[in-house]
Batch of 3 targets.
Target 1
Amino acid sequence: MKKNFFRSAFCGVLFLAFLSAPARAQFYLGIRGGLSNQNARADQLKFDKNSAFLYGAQVGIKFLGLAVEGQFYRADHNLLAETEAMVKVEQEMDYYYLGISGKLGIPLAIVYPYVTVGYGTYSVDLKGLGKKSDRAFNVGAGAEVTLGKVGIFGELRYTDFGLDIKDIAWDFGGVDLHFGLNIHF
C-alpha cells in the first residue's frame, strides 16, 4: 500500500512539474544556403569532389530541446572524372532533397547546439542519362543563435545513398555545409 502511495505521489509531482514548466513551443520558417560536396561514383569511375552552392527552405516546430523540421534544398554539380585511358568524362548533375529531420539539442539562453537525424527523398537528375529518386537517412550537427525572433544557424550534414540510372550503379554521398536564417513565431 505504501509503495503504491509513494509511486502515485512521485508521478503526481512529476506531472505537476511538467505542467508548471513554461511552454515554449515555437513555429519557424527559414531559408538556407551552403555548399554541397558529393563523392560520386559510377561503377568503377570515381568523379572528382565537386562543391556546388546549395539553396532551399525549411519549416519547423521546436519545443524545449526537441525540434522537427521539414526541408527542401537543391544543388547543381558539374562532375569530372578521368578514365584509365586518360579520357575525361564530364557529367552535369542536379541534386534535390525533400525530407524531415529531428533535432535534439540543449536550449541555452541564446545558443541552441544540436544533433540531427533526417530521412527523405534524394533525387538526382543526370543530364542525358535520366532522373531517379531514392530514400535515405542523413546525420549532422549544428548550432543556432537566436536573437529575438530571428535565428541564424550553421550545420554540417553527412549523406550516403545510391541509385541505378540507365543500368549503371551510381553511389553518392558527402558532407554538406548549411547556413541559414529562421524566423520564429
Target 2
Amino acid sequence: MSKDAIEIVRGSGNVYRDFAVSDADVKQLKAILAAEIIKALDKEGLSVRKAHAHTGIAAADFSRIRNADLDRFTVDRLMTIINRLGSRVEVSVRVRRPARRRARAEPGSVSP
C-alpha cells in the first residue's frame, strides 16, 4: 500500500451535482431517459435506421442518444421518444429542501 492516504467521498447519486455542473438535476434526468431509450433499442434489436422506420424519429437523433450527446434534447422530447418505442415513463417528484443551520440552539438542547 502507498503511504499516501486515500480519501473516499460518498457521492450524492448525481455526478453532475457532485461536480457542481449547472442544471445538474436536468442533466441527470436526461441521462436516465437516454439510458432507457438505449435499453429499449437493444432489447428490440433496433439499429438507428430501424428505430427511425419504427418511430418516425430521425436516425441522427438515435445516434446522438447512443453517443450521450444530449444537449439538443429536452426532457419532453426524450419522453416522447420512449413513448414511440412502446414504453411509458412514470415520473415521481420529491422535493428536498437543503438543511439549514440553526442560528440558535433549540430549547432543551445542549451545546457541545
Target 3
Amino acid sequence: MLVMFFCSAFPVDILRKTFSGLIVIMLLLSSGCASVGHEFPTSQISTIRIGETTKNDVYTTFGAPWRTGIDNGMKTWTYGNYHYSLFNEQSAEDLVIKFDKRGIVSAFVFNTTKRSK
C-alpha cells in the first residue's frame, strides 16, 4: 500500500512542479522588456550651443549624465533612454556631449529611433 501511494504521488508532484515552472516561464516571457538609462528633456537639446554652453549649464538643464567617459582626450557625458522589448517596438534616445578642457561644449550628437510627429 505504501509503495502504491509513493509511486502514484511521485508523478503528480513532477507534473505539479513542471506546470508551475511553465507558468513562471510564460509570465517572464510575456513581460519580456527592459529599460536602460533614464529620461531626459529632449526638447531642451536646441539650447546647447557649441563654444558657449558650459558643463554647469548642461547639468542644470539635463541633470546628472547616465554615463561619462573620455573621447580623444575630451570629457564626454551621455544621456540615454533605451527600451527593449521582445513583443513591442523598441526605442532608443541618446545625447552625447563632448567638453573641451575648459568645460565648454565642443561637440554633441543626438540620436533617436522615435519618429518625428
